[in-house]
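User: Structure with zinc ion, tokens only please.
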Amino acid sequence: MKIKIQDIEVNYNIFHRKVKYARLEIKNETLNIIMPHGVKDYNILIKKHEKWIYQKFSRINRLKIESETRKLDHSRSNDSFQEIVRDYVDRISRKMGLKVNRVTLRRMKTRWGSCSSLGNISINTRLKYLPKGLIKYVIHHEVCHLKVRKHDKQYWSLVSEEYPNYKKYEEELSIYWFLVKDLD
Ligand SMILES: [Zn+2]
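Assistant:
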């Protein structure tokens, strides 16, 4: 289903779930409206969060357009990608004096990487199509999570010791996401 907010078209789905309060979330460029059973009127919720929805979807559209000017690198082999990842994990963790338990490369549907509380780092295999500088940044991002779990102020201040312009990198990764999200 679609609604229009000013000049932006928003795809949305409605879900009724066993929740106490209605809430909104955005996944795969779609607005999910999650409501308690028995509550029918979601227009109030949309009206209330119109500005937020508009801002989120403007950003999505802007990044999508921007992604058309980026290109994926299809020349890198799996072996070479694996080597690059292991090398960066080694170098970055050593430099920061942190210990990584295990590194796993796997296909991930919603993110570039993750880090478990046991010190295991997972890296999205789709990262192999991205410029080396971005691969390095993602690994730096995950290694920093060994020290600070959440994306809080302390976390970003740690990241910025090496990447003062980390926002630019995060934005670039969001742009590239549009190019890889439909790859097998
Ligand atoms: Zn993170």
